[in-house]
Amino acid sequence: MRRPVLTWLAAASLLAACASPTAPTSGFSYTVPQQPEAASGLTAKPGWATTKFAVAAANPLATDAGYQVLRAGGSAIDAAIAVQMVLTLVEPQSSGIGGGAFLLHSNGREVEAFDGRETAPAAADERLFLAADGKPLPFYEAVVGGRSVGVPGTLKMLEMAHRQHGRLPWAALFQPAIRLAEQGFRVSPRLNTLAKADAHLQKDPTARAYFFQASGEPLAVGSTLRNPELAAVLKRVASEGAGAFYAGEIAQAIVDKVQKHPTNPGKLTLADLAAYQPKKRAPICHDYRARAKDYRICGFPPPSSGAIAVGQILGILANTTADTLPLVDGLPPADWLHLYTEAARLAFADRAQYLADPDFVQPPAGRLG
Asked: What structural domains and CATH numbers belong to the chain?
């Protein structure tokens, strides 16, 4: 079943579109970098220029893992896999193997879209998020617990992409996350802040023991956090492939966690996990001309809504005076921002009205463009 649902486990989004800088070496050996600083708040960065490759991620440990993979001769897909595994460890509130991912890959000639979005359990129906009286559940009553957990797709999608574009061995790409999970990483300001702001995380005994001190306060910024259980899971996936996550002991543990939630059990089954298959979809690309320059913009198609919304916004702006308005100190003027805001309002209204998983809901006229 392809309908995406909200997931209590974190989802991920990846973009991999750079080329490998060198030929692959015979092996990859990960070196733990200096850990992120313990300071909180905005950190000014000088900016960097690059001619061959670059990596950007939400945590410097994840960025560094991808950088080391590229330096070792890995491909962009190799780097994305290493980045995602480290994010699973250091940014679990935002990104992880328990959720889903969209991945765009470009080799300079063509763009590919790999769909690893979560899917709904086969037993999900239109009553899933309704209370006994038929009214929609309040948001957090629906989300917190097992009810909103979808079938995770990240690992199988990454494995599909790696088969096509990987250069380093699959198992090598898990080295950084395994080493950091076993040896420990420093709690980032973001992880500390979001754990403190989450009113529901401490209701789960396992999460409470892992993310919080005995006092109930989240682990302090800069404190060392280890996750040997995650390391064990990653070792299994590294050596046996993604299938180790979708069957056997790991899959059973996931299903038990979902189905046996004490207040909000879900419908995920072993059969759902076993049946999951990632997909390749045709990317959405459109041409745009601004300030006498031509652009080719490509993005992920539905069930993602971002690229089609961007295309609609820019298409509307192309039929206005936006491109003729002079910049003010290098920035768009207020009249341009007004036109953009109105175009965005229409694009997002259409998004809410018409866009869904194309495997189940066709857009108007049966096509997107």
From this structure: 14-280 (no CATH), 283-366 (1.10.246.130)
